Amino acid sequence: MTRVLVVDDSDTTRTLLVRTLERAGFEVSSARDGAEGAAAALREPPAVVVTDLDMPVMDGHQLLRLLKSETATAMTPIVILTSHGEAPSRFWGLRAGADAYLTKDSDPAELVATVGRLAAATAVGPAREPAGPLGPLDVLTKVVRQLDASLMRATLLNALLERGLSTNDLHAANRAILEVVAGVADAHLLAVGVTEPDAATLDVLVARPVSLRSTDRFIAATVAEMALPTNVELKVDVSGAGEGEGDADPSHLVSYPLPMRGATSLLALLPSEPQQFAVASAGLLADLAPHAGILLDNARLGQKLQELSTHDGLTRALNHRAILERLSQEIERAGRYDRTVTVVISDLDHFKRVNDAHGHVAGDAVLRAAADAMRHALRVSDVLGRFGGEEFLAVLPESDLEAGRQAAERLRRAVAERTATIASGERVPITGSFGVASQAELGSEVTADALVALADSRLYQAKAAGRNCVRP
Questions:
Q1: Are 50 and 115 contacting, i.e. CB atoms less than 8 angstroms apart?
Q2: Confidence class of residue 127 from pLDDT cuts 50, 70 and 90?
Q3: Can you name the CATH fold of 320-471?
Q4: What percent of the chain lies above the pLDDT cut of 70?
Q5: 3-state SS, residue 340
Q6: Cα–Cα distance between 312 and 299 in angstroms, integer?
Q7: If we measure between CA atoms, which residue out of 160, 235, 250 comes closest to residue 195?
Q8: How far apart are CA 176 and CA 169, in angstroms?
Q9: Domain boundaries, the chain
Q10: pLDDT of amino acid 146
């Protein structure tokens, strides 16, 4: 016979509920408040619990959260039956884990049907020995522990959101997750990996000094968990405590998926004490993972929106406005610290012929190939922008005219060595002409427009000299 526990502080209501359910064929026990109901349910879990909300000692919401947090009763269906019909009460009850919500003026047949449906849908587990006697103090201790665990989860989530929701940078969001997790999980190494359709990143935090070999093995194990497509480039960033003498076994790696839209991601870590971690932190991180995924989604979306406003969609170089803003910033910085900045402006040779002969789709392929070639030929500190049409502008901080000329020659060679494959399979050759100008040539009152104008005049000199060359 299906056993149902009724919890209500009203003797009249409790008696009516017991009679209604017994007439429907259920075996019914009852309790007068949440504490008594919790003790009864934990001592011998029923098939279904029917509980009021407003009760002394422990109310229905507290009873609900306690039973859903205990292993013995986590899967026990709970029906809230109350005189409250307000939306906030219903929302909180269902969010806390209630399986059904009825008001006391509902048809008794609806209660019977709801209890029967929930009891039938619940898988019957193996027989369980009744627990020992549970008194009010035992129940109170469980409530306090449950509340403390909930407070810790809320505090951890708040720390994560404070750190992560303020950034529009995926790398910064990864670091925020790693630093928060490192505070609650004893681990040698931690990592967040994100795989997008065209790129992948892996941020690694060395929380405790370990050997370089251990770090490499941890990275390899994490990359294996990421299951990267063969055509996606992975960027790895490692920071933290640095290299030490300790060794860490990657076989103890623990990973959690971080749900994202349009990408896959995971949190991986190498616990210092695997068994202790399983007891103290595993559940906490499992609860945190969906929220971390939302944080990454937010940062990724913000980063893409920012890129849309500052980058050229075709070549992924900075757009016209953004590259000029960057140049102005570098000119100001160079003037403040008595340094110099140089620019290189380039124009792809005979680009109109490509469009006329092969179409604009082929022209787009040429632009992408040229931008990619130049981007890889520049230093990390240099910046490339699409200045307009087939023209590109490179800003070279800390570079004089000679260094700029050498950089332009590298760019020229990189473009000339690259070809663009078009839809027909044909490989289209690419060359470019380059003009170079340095801030030092124009004195202290130099502006971005003046510097670009000087480089542009030299670009025309390069074209007049036969193209595919650098001037000066």
A1: yes
A2: very low
A3: Alpha-Beta Plaits (3.30.70)
A4: 93
A5: coil
A6: 20
A7: 235
A8: 11
A9: 3-130, 152-307, 320-471
A10: 66
